[in-house]
Amino acid sequence: MFSPKKLIALAAGAVITLCASLTADAASYRYDYNMDGVSDSADLQALGDYLLGRGTLEKDAYDSGDLNGDGKVNVYDLILMRQYNEEFSQKAPKGMWIASGYDGVRYFWWNGDKSLFCPASTGVSTDFTFTQEGSSLSLSLSTGGTAAASIKWLSDKSFQLNWSGTGTETFTYYGSYKINTTYDISGKYATSGKYGERWFVIDKLSGDHRKAGSNDRSYFSYFFDSGDLVLVYRDGSISKCGFTRIDRDHFTVTWPNKTTEKFTRRSVEVKDGITYINGILIANKTYALPESYAPGGLTSETNAAYNEMKAAATADGIPMWICSGYRSYSYQSQLYNNYVARDGKEKADTYSARPGHSEHQTGLAMDINYADDSFLGTPTADWLAKNCWKYGFIIRYPKGKESITGYKYEPWHVRYLGKETAKLVYESGLCLEEYLMITSKYS
Q1: Structural domain boundaries, residue 221
Q2: Could you tell me the end-to-end alpha-carbon distance of the chain, in angstroms, rounded to an integer?
Q3: Same-domain check for residues 107 and 68
Q4: What per-residue confidence (pLDDT) applies to 101?
Q5: Packing angle between helix 4-20 and helix 75-89, nearest 10 degrees?
Q6: 317 and 400: one domain?
Q7: 219 near 208, Cβ under 8 Å?
Q8: Which of 118, 200, 244, 379 could be joined to 125 by an S-S link, Cβ 3.0–4.6 Å?
Q9: Same domain for 381 and 327
Q10: How many beta carbons lie within 10 A of that of residue 179, not counting itself?
Q11: What is the layout of strands, in order, in the sheet containing 365-368?
Q12: One of 261, 359, 410, 433 is an active-site residue; which one?
């Protein structure tokens, strides 16, 4: 039986030839002689014991340990392994890595003097530079701080950093992606598409999603790479998706299987029986106001916006006045019951709201000039359709959207949303129900 020194001496003549096969792509080699899931120096001892007859190798370990590809695991593989270990111990991380450990999930993009990291919990990236001597790393942060750590490679796509005085993080390689935190898509979203309605809850750079009506969640973290959305799930799987921003509240995701899903920001809050979606007070056939809700008139903000709009219309030679503004719950009840008595419930429901479901009760809506079909095609109707959004209003029940809003086309009925939101809804070409992805149907 040869000693380890003798074995190495016998192989010396073949070292140059063998080492020539260990190219710059040495990290592509895999070996795990002791089957502990890690390629490290402990495997060197395990291989030595096997060659000296002091141990055995399982088939998987034997197959993965043939580093020079000659069909055998022998002293030549031991030589390559020692050289690989020496080079590997000097290796510096490069590319996109996701760290998990004492500080939650963090993204690291290692690229010498252009490196950066970003905690998934905050979405705020920090630039840094680093130097390496053997297994010791020194980081200098753009914020002025410094950090020191020792690196231990577990494989060519996994390593650990033991931060001095802090804790340990395990890093997993995810390719040559570069972290991009330009887009903040935090929020609650409902989706539509092939998968039906799903809910996504996104906070900074992490989130979860579930099918509507289910509590089974899939958790992920994410980042952007050159405009593409990259989702990393807890099981290590990764989805690189196309991403298109539509406006503040909408975007689409095209999944790897080419299926496109539309995301609509939709945060629902109910306070004192009143439903707010994305901060917008909602009253329609699905969402009702309590009888006690009674602002007593148009809100001051709505009234000021109307006065501004009327002044602009007057300057353009357009006559404008309010023929119906705020209505109380009881007054709406009287109106609705009168319409039902005259036209029947089915027809009345196409043009009049049941008590508690009328936008007029919100103090945010009004009818302009004439609340009937005589208003259609008038100069005021045309001006309103083209300009009301500039003052924070929308045509609440647009033409062609009757099956969605639940009401006939009413060019005279405007609803105040504020200038920013009204502009978004107007430019989208959607009615409010579509914009918020909500229904308007009596239960």
Answers
A1: 187-265
A2: 87
A3: no
A4: 87
A5: 70
A6: yes
A7: yes
A8: 118
A9: yes
A10: 18
A11: 322-324, 365-368, 410-416, 393-397
A12: 410
Residue 9 three-state SS: helix
Answer whether residue 385 shows pLDDT above 90. Answer: yes
How far apart CA 181 and CA 108 sit, in angstroms, is 12
430 CB neighbour count, 10 Å cutoff: 19
Asked whether 420 and 362 are in contact (CB, 8 A), the reply is no
pLDDT band at 76 (very low <50, low <70, confident <90, very high): confident
Instruction: Assess whether 287 and 423 both reside in one domain.
Output: yes
Handedness of CA 265, 269, 273, 276 (dihedral sign): negative
Please tell me what DSSP assigns to residue 391: G
Q: Is 133 a catalytic residue?
A: no
CA–chain centroid gap for 121, Å, is 13
What CA–CA distance (Å, rounded) separates 149 from 156? 18
Q: Any idea which residue has 């103090």 for tokens? A: 363
Position 417 confidence tier, pLDDT thresholds 50, 70, 90: very high
Q: What confidence tier does 424 reach under pLDDT thresholds 50, 70, 90?
A: very high
Instruction: Give the chain's domain count.
Output: 4
* Alpha-carbon span 285 to 442, nearest angstrom: 5
> Residue 72 is encoded by which pair of tokens?
């055998």
β-strands 187-193, 198-203: how paired? antiparallel
The answer to the question of residue 151 being in a domain is yes
Sheet holding 268-271, edge to edge: 268-271, 274-277, 280-281
Closest CA to 365 of 266, 271, 283, 278: 283
Rounded Cα gap, residues 110 and 102, in angstroms: 20
- Both 343 and 238 in a single domain? no
- Report the run of H or E that residue 41 belongs to, with start and end: helix 41-51
pLDDT digits (tens, 9 = 90+) for 242-260: 999 999 999 999 999 999 9
Quote the CA–CA distance of 342 and 336 in Å, as a whole number. 10
Give the C-alpha separation, 208 to 220, whole Å: 6
Lowest mean pLDDT among 228-232, 331-335, 365-369, 432-436: 228-232
H or E stretch including 304? helix 300-315
282 and 412 fall within a common domain:
yes
Alpha carbon distance 337, 33 (integer Å): 84
| Sign of the alpha-carbon dihedral angle for 392, 396, 400, 405 | positive
How many Cα atoms occupy the beta-carbon half-sphere of 333 within 13 Å?
7
pLDDT in tens, 119-140: 888 888 899 999 998 889 999 9
Residue 178: inside a domain, yes or no? Answer: no
CA distances from 196 to 260, 263, 312 (A): 11, 12, 44
Checking DSSP bridges between strand 104-110 and strand 95-101, what pairing results, if any? Answer: antiparallel
